[in-house]
Amino acid sequence: MSLPVPSSDALAASHALQTLIAADIERHGGAISFARYMELALYAPGLGYYSGGSAKLGKDGDFTTAPELSPLFGAALARVAAAIIAQSAPRILEFGAGTGKLAFDILTELAAAGVAVERYFIVELSGELRGRQQEKLRDFPQVQWLDALPASFDGVVFGNEVLDAMPVHLVSKHPEGWQELQVTVADGRFQYLETPAGDELLAQVARQIPEHEQLPAGYVTELHGIASSFMATLARMLASGQANAAFLFDYGFPAHEYYFDQRAAGTLMCHYRHHAHPDPFYYPGLQDITAHVDFTAMALAAQDAGIDVLGYLNQAGFLIGAGIGELLLRTDPADAMAYLPQARAMQKLVSPAEMGELFKVLVVGKGVELPQALVLQDRTHRL
């Protein structure tokens, strides 16, 4: 692969993480699940991609998220937050707040609209990103960082590109049955090792993948047990409250679109310095590793844990329903220098050829109603 060459310090950090992962493999008898490998590659203390010190977002990082593209994204979410707060409580909780840009834009827009936010909680695993958030949000005293979810919550929850970074198991279809793709070390390199899938993974296959018996031999895909467990935990927190809604933005598909014959290599993807590639063993700790989200599995996990699915929309429908077009027109179109960059950013956010269709919004909660403009865009029937 033709990718940028890491610095010597970055290489040293990656080599240290590789040594840690190799030791974990040895402790587990020569192989670990891919989910365990992905967990260490992303979250090993001080060395993992999200727990280390490298910049991840923006032009100097590895990828750009919707809040980084334009303040219109956060302003649109603030409009929806105001509608939910009016029915619940003046509190917001955000998972994985990145640079703090989304929180900044939401709080700025709500303040301008005269909507008071009593507390803005952030759950962040990355020490480097938490530091950037604290600097970005220093003028908002209502922001508070948490290490874990509260037992109960009323208000609004946001999670932008959180589910895609949760570790997944990999499985492969064979004539004799499903195999798990584990990770081992051979010739000094991490490699896949196929082993018969255990009963728990086989149960996940049966529950998660429609018509899995008809998939062709050699078909590889992801199992989202960890993300499903997260959704169950989130749902229990919401179910313990009185009125709330959680909005989860991510790229992915409902199950009947996820497990196509043509998607026979799965959806696993890595991001390094704005280059996307499929090799999760390339410099562990220096690149993001993600998988597309199975939104059907996420919705079912939330329902099974006692919370309602309030909506499922593509990002375009959500943002248009939230009034992003009106927000754009607060900038005078005659002022081309100011208007055109915002118009281009909005186009990327809502265009079906960009983020508008690939990114979806799953809404779960209880005791509140979504704004009618969002209800009109709902696709829950497609889950």
From TrEMBL:
Keywords for the protein's UniProt record, in alphabetical order: Methyltransferase, Transferase
GO molecular function: protein-arginine omega-N symmetric methyltransferase activity
GO biological process, one term: methylation
Leader sequence residues: none
Protein name, as recorded: Class I SAM-dependent methyltransferase
Organism: Duganella alba
